[in-house]
């Protein structure tokens, strides 16, 4: 029988309702029995002991905030009676801890597409990438014309990736746009790419071509609309040639060490840190043991749990980069006259998350227990195997795009509330609770809610590993089946 509540850590002074609990229900924890003072929704917390105003509320073994009024034993604990302890910028000290994995290298493979530069993709798609938003319509029309002409395509997808930028930007915004578009064009999930420019934009074709560095000139073509009479006619000529080349590609055995996976969550609930997020942590540890790479992002959702990551850094140098990662993002909030700790969202609160510390402690569990090998700035690509941290905001589509741009062939997205969006790489939705999995089968690809019902965490991890290898082998996830494919680029400055 499923336990109806869970004390996550022995030091916790709150427990989490795994299923809805009702007022006056008798609760017994560590031999102590008491009655609940009110109904407790699924995923929400109740007090295991009386708390006075100012007392720390402990969950996951860490303080997630402090009581702002007296809380009785059995009371519902939520954003109305606790608040964050976080404020201002912090000083950090490197206190390294040993980080170990329970997994060994199994010498596994997946069926991927080997690219000319040696990288491997898990999809073979043809992409049309605008250098500027002015040609979004032409890019869309070219994609639809090629789909109509090829019918039952031999490719996994034909897609145009629209965005609003490429002109009227300055400084970091302009460079970030160029970097993200570069990373998309060079991504191994694309068997061929047509880059479509206008001609008068800031993101000029020739300068963008130079930014690519070494690239496969047989698989990446360029079209400048202002230099041709009919950009659709000229575009189709180029696309036909690209399609013929890419459609001849075949899957081949690729070591699992070449798999790169992004870790993301959105619409979290009170079960996120108990089911889906620690499950991703096990997968991250597993993939690191195979020689692969995982990437954790959403920097604002590290606030309050950042020292856990800092102390797992491989070296003092990586620690310093992590400190800059955290403080630079805090300065971004300050520069824009916004509160640093303005989180969680209304949906998070409805799901049982009351403070940013609580959210962060649940979110960072996606990183498992492995060593932090490197820290990537926004728009940078993966250089190190193992666990990486990436600078990007918590916004779902911006962060997922940044993960794909870093080189991740897929993104794992845990959610307790549900969302249908998809990025430009397969975006695997993992539910934190079974109700969501059952109510949104067209959104959710994998259910982690079974972990609080009857399934052991290790068994769920093996099930997830097997499923994700099938995704790498070509099994489509829901966002791909529905053709939900988008990109979003981070913007911080003015628009001209």
Give a quick rundown of the structure.
Helix content is 29%, strand content 20%. With 496 residues, the protein is α/β, with parallel strands linked by helices.
What does this entry look like structurally?
It is a single chain. 29% of the residues lie in helices and 20% in strands. It is globular. The strands form six sheets. Strands 19-20-18-17-21-22-23 form a seven-stranded parallel beta sheet, with helices on both faces. Strands 1-2-5-8 form a four-stranded antiparallel beta sheet, with no helix packed on it. The chain has a four-stranded parallel beta sheet with strand order 13-12-14-15, sandwiched between helices. The model has no long low-confidence stretch (mean pLDDT 95). With 496 residues, it is of the alpha/beta class. Helix 1 crosses helix 4. It folds into three domains: 5-83, Archaeosine Trna-guanine Transglycosylase, Chain: A, domain 4 (Roll); 125-248, Ribose 5-phosphate Isomerase B, Chain: A (3-Layer(aba) Sandwich); 254-481.
Descriptors for this entry?
alpha/beta; single chain; Ribose 5-phosphate Isomerase B, Chain: A; 7-stranded parallel sheet; Archaeosine Trna-guanine Transglycosylase, Chain: A, domain 4; 3 domains; 496 residues; globular; 4-stranded antiparallel sheet
Count of the separate structural domains:
3
- Helix and strand content put the structural class at alpha/beta
Distance between the termini: 61 Å
**What share of residues is helical?**
25-40%
- The radius of gyration over CA amounts to 24 Å
Helical stretch count? 13
The total beta strand count reads: 23
* Strand adjacency order, main sheet: 19-20-18-17-21-22-23
């Amino acid at each position: 029988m499923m336990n109806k509540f869970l004390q996550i850590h022995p030091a916790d002074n709150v427990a989490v309702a795994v299923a809805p609990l009702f007022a006056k229900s008798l609760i017994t924890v560590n031999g102590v029995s008491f009655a609940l003072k009110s109904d407790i929704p699924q995923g929400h917390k109740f007090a295991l002991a009386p708390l006075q105003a100012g007392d720390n509320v402990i969950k996951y073994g860490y303080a997630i905030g402090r009581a702002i009024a007296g809380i009785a034993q059995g009371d519902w604990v939520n954003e109305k009676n606790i608040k964050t302890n976080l404020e201002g910028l912090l000083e950090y000290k490197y206190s390294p801890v040993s980080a170990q994995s329970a997994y060994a290298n199994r010498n596994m493979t997946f069926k991927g597409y080997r690219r000319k530069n040696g990288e491997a993709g898990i999809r073979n798609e043809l992409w049309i990438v605008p250098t500027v938003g002015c040609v979004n319509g032409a890019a869309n029309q070219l994609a639809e014309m090629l789909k109509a002409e090829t019918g039952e395509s031999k490719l996994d997808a034909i897609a145009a990736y629209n965005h609003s930028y490429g002109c009227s930007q300055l400084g970091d915004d302009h460079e970030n746009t160029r970097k993200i578009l570069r990373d998309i064009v060079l991504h191994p999930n694309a068997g061929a790419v047509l880059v479509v420019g206008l001609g008068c934009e800031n993101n000029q074709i020739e300068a963008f071509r130079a930014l690519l560095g070494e690239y496969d000139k047989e698989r990446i073509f360029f079209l400048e609309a202002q230099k041709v009479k009919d950009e659709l006619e000229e575009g189709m000529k180029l696309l036909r040639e690209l399609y013929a080349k890419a459609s001849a590609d075949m899957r081949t055995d690729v070591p699992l060490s070449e798999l790169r996976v992004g870790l993301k969550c959105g619409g979290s609930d009170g079960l996120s840190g108990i089911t889906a997020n620690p499950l991703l942590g096990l997968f991250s540890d597993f993939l690191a043991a195979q020689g692969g790479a995982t990437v954790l992002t959403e920097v604002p959702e590290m606030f309050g749990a950042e020292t856990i990551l800092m102390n797992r850094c491989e070296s003092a140098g990586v620690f310093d980069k992590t400190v800059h990662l955290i403080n630079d993002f805090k300065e971004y909030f300050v520069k824009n006259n916004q509160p640093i700790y303005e989180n969680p969202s209304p949906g998070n609160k409805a799901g049982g998350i009351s403070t940013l510390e609580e959210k962060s402690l649940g979110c960072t569990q996606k990183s498992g227990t492995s060593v932090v090998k490197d820290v990537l700035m926004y728009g940078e690509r993966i250089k190190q195997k193992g666990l990486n941290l990436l600078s990007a905001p918590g916004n779902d589509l911006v962060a997922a795009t940044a993960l794909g741009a870093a080189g991740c062939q897929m993104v794992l997205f845990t959610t307790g509330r549900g969302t249908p969006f998809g990025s430009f790489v397969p975006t695997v939705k993992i539910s934190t609770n079974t109700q969501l999995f059952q109510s949104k089968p067209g959104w959710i690809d994998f259910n982690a809610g079974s972990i609080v019902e009857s399934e052991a965490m290790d068994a769920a991890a093996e099930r997830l590993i097997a499923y994700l290898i099938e995704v790498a082998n070509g099994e489509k996830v829901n966002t791909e089946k529905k053709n939900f494919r988008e990109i979003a680029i981070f913007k911080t400055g003015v628009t001209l």
